[in-house]
What does this fold into?
Amino acid sequence: MKVLSVNGSPRKDGNTSVMLRRVCAPLTRGGATVDEAHLHGMDLSPCSGCMTCMRKKDGKCHGYPDDGNALIERTRAADVILLGSPVYFGSVTGQIKAYMDRIGFVSRVNDGFLRRKIGAAVVVARRAGELLTFAELNMWFLINGMVVPGSSYWNVGHGRKEGEVSQDTEAMATLDDLADNIQWLWDAVRP
Ligand SMILES: Cc1cc2nc3c(=O)[nH]c(=O)nc-3n(C[C@H](O)[C@H](O)[C@H](O)COP(=O)(O)O)c2cc1C
It folds into this structure.
């Protein structure tokens, strides 16, 4: 199993990372390889809406000569896509929205490479907005024909300072159950 873990937080080792790594740890022990994509610091502009990907149909983004096409290739190579975002003003971060728009559109107007990959989202908030943000990430999986395993609760946690979410024991248990379900699904459907 190849996992792409997409961190939409500008804090490389913040709470979103804690949650993503909590899901990845048991998967790695089960034999998975994990590719961590930290979007902050990458050159990734929002979608330009140029529609060149739809005209050319070569599986590439032509909007900007930035890191978008490398991310498309890293996404193509993965069986499981984990999306992680902190809540920013009740929504996802700009970094992860750029990833979703750029990669999602190229997939949709080309060969649908996201279809039937496994997708799971993790979200952290200091206080509120976590469920709307969680829904936004899950809607991206669903419109792209991906398969979304559940857990024992929604995959959301609470914390403000870096690392604080690890004290949210219910969130940590939810992430452990999510990892277990991802592994179960992979074992059930892998070729
Ligand atoms: C610009 C900005 C907007 C934020 N908006 C919210 C919000 O709407 N609701 C909330 O509960 N927390 C909000 N927060 C707090 C973060 O979601 C919280 O600190 C989170 O743990 C950060 O995760 P990270 O360590 O992965 O970056 C905001 C933080 C920033 C910097």
Notes: The chain is about 40% helix and 15% strand. Residues 9, 11, 14-16, 86-90, 124-129, 159-160, 162 surround flavin mononucleotide (CB under 6 Å). The two ends are 11 Å apart (CA to CA). Helices lie at 15-29, 52-56, 68-76, 94-109, 130-143, 169-189.
